[in-house]
Amino acid sequence: MPEQSPKARPRLSPLRLDRRTLLAGLGASLGGAFPAWAQGGAHGAMMGAAPSNQAPGVLSGERIELAIGHTPVRINGRMGHAVTANGTMPGPLIRLREGQDVCLSVRNTLGEDTSVHWHGLLVPFQFDGVPGISFPGIAPGQTFDYRFPVRQAGTYWYHSHSGMQEAMGLLGPIVIDPAGPEPQPYDREHVIMLSDWSPVHPHVLLKRLKQMGGYHNFQKQTLAGLLAGRDQPLSERLAWGRMRMDPTDISDVTGSAYTFLINGHDTDANWTGLFTPGERVRLRFINASAMTHFNVRLPGLPMRVIQADGQDVEPVETDEFQIAIAETYDVIVCPAKAEPVAIIAEALDRSGLCRATLAPQAGMVAPLVPLRKRPLLTMRDMGMDMSGMDMGGMGMEGGTLDLSAPSDAPPSGHAHHGAMTMKMRDKSLAAPAIRMGPGVATIAPAPIDRLADRPTGLEQVDHRVLTYADLRALVPSEDRRAPTRHLDLHLTANMERYMWGFDGAKLSENPDPISFRHGERVRVTLINDTMMPHPIHLHGHFFELVNGAGDKAPRKHTVNVLPGGKVRFDLTASALGDWAFHCHVLLHMHTGMFRVVTVRAGENAA
Amino acid sequence: MSMRLFAAVLVTMAGTAGPALAQMADMPGTMHDHAAPVSSPDEEASPPPIPADHAADAIFDPAIMARARKATIHDAGGMPFSMLLIDQAEWRPGTGKNPQGYAWNVKGWWGGDVNRLAIESEGEGLAGEKAERAEIQVGWLHALDPWFNVRAGVRQDLGWGPHRTHAALTIEGITPYWFDVEGSLFISNKGEVTARLEGSYDQRITQRLILQPRAELDFSAQDMPELRTGAGLGRAELGLRLRYEIAREFAPYVGVNWETRGGRSARLMRASGDDPTALRALAGIRLWF
Ligand SMILES: [Cu+2]
To answer: Any stretches that span the bilayer, and where are they (chain B) (predicted)?
Structure first.
């Protein structure tokens, strides 16, 4: 067993394995045990209730212990092998209070290294939990104590950052109660944790994608569809085929491999949260999926969004929102009638969904809604939508893009005479920083800011849909300095070879870290040159989205960059150390879309 | 000068960008920056230096950190993968003058995204007989760009006639409209130069039913009588296979294959009593690991 000997705290203490405890844990979890917070018929927590009054399965206080181990699980009738915290999937709810100190003691009973990352928590970098960047990881048989003050309130989560353990179930919620009063009072709350599960090892899912980029997609366009008048007309199919692009390439791993879960329960298991009619019920949505973005709605019930990524926002009412992987949204709903209400989490590509129920009493089942038609990508998703030109039927023949404008200036967007060059990989358009190798199949010719766009597939639905432009921080940002520096980063890919990166480089190619001066304010622009959305997550920081809200720019730890679009955010590099910065689509991260961000004091500081 | 600086200069200076900007304002979904104004371009700070050390090394044993770092970096894009594709493993029932036979086509690779070890084998024969045409190739596969690879290696012939060894150079990839193409040049140990062109297309009829037309053309730069091949077009094969993907990697198929020889090759075939042209039904299985 390799001995880890840090020079200073945290201390890694050797673990004595207690076989009886382990076996007891295994037995209890066989057949699907859940922590109390995620059990069906959960009463949820009442606002203001002291943590000690809550059901077991909620961990509170200054010292919290997690044991990471193997657990067999049965989901959708099939046995699978999960990696879990304290024997359950999802893991226990960690409930903290703003201002307290906490020691999270994580014991590894696996035969391989593990780690736990506290997603969205502002912690000293050595307790951030990313092996190889913030700490060495937790070797088999060892315990690592994460110690930090709790500096924030809101809804967060934790997950493994080692190998693919996150996709195998090592995930759980964190709720932090504010030191002061809740800005938006409510009567009762439930954590709603969304995830995707496959009994197939995630490494095998990745291998299949490397062998065939469209392996899991069973919603492609077909000849039968063309003859039946479905999907794109022939001319559009030809134009997309010419560019070697597939407009149905919405999700890499789909419902053909996954069962979608709410609090660890699939649709049939019907997780149920209780309410009393007339109550204000706060739902803390966390997308803990490895590979799935979800469209979330409670048919017939409007939602008041009060937090995004744990940060308070001005309440905004909506009927549906898309939650990208690793984001959280808190909403308040007020079911008035004594009737069950469905919570629907529909996969982005509509290859499946999960239904849970909010009910006045246990045993009720809310009606299921049908899956909607899977969306098709458009020219806008290629970064090719020119000033409202009619893109229908690729009406660009005979037009041309004026691409002489510098990459960061708005595209001039007017059509010229002459041949339209549908070049999706024009090297002259690529920023000099991009390595134009086999890993870069496309460069968005004219990426636009899509923060006010409805996300993929929800463009046409006839009810309200939340966009990033709707989010306004409840309290103005502390740092209102203008940025002194700009940084552009391109999200790049070759979907056929299944290569993902920043600026054309995978982390495995050892690109330089992204360097910031401590305290400097930088405007970062993420440009998505690919045709997939990427939820980009920066560890250790929040950043303010430049979404038109001015001083009330919403603060986020994860931002979903729509295909062919760009996102600007202002970052105050406030946290010293080295931090992970990556796409939270797990297999994108594992095929290269990952960088190290480093924040250092002074010019030559270590 | 950065692109951004250039952009700002352009926008400030000129009327040319003006109408474009006005147009942008009307675009649905285009956001404008109402946040605090960004410092003017000439105040743009330079990026800080890239530190050569690692923050965690100050807290943990640097040797242990180095090992963990290496693993994390490797896991984000550096993992090797592999594939063994049995593209064709088929039985060709006999019809009249064409006796029944068999054929195979296998491809495999192991390695990273850019460099791989590749193997390939194809051949055909008559039932109960040694393969009439059989070859195996081993080579280095290198990604040239997003869509095309080069393969360099050796080819060993194992079928009818003398067994040649060739140096092989192949360009393979996906063209616009999703055609799979492959072009190879071979130089044998006798100095003979031959070439091969292959192309195929997967037409999805439904999500699992796929029709694949396929063509393979062999050319020779010289007469090779002992191989019954003449200069020019040697062998031409056209196939049409309809497969059903029970799983992506497990698909039975049926189809037809038409094979013929070019003028000089056909004459050499006939001289040895064989029919240079054959049309056969076929049934087989496509699978991969
Ligand atoms: Cu991604």
So the answer is: none
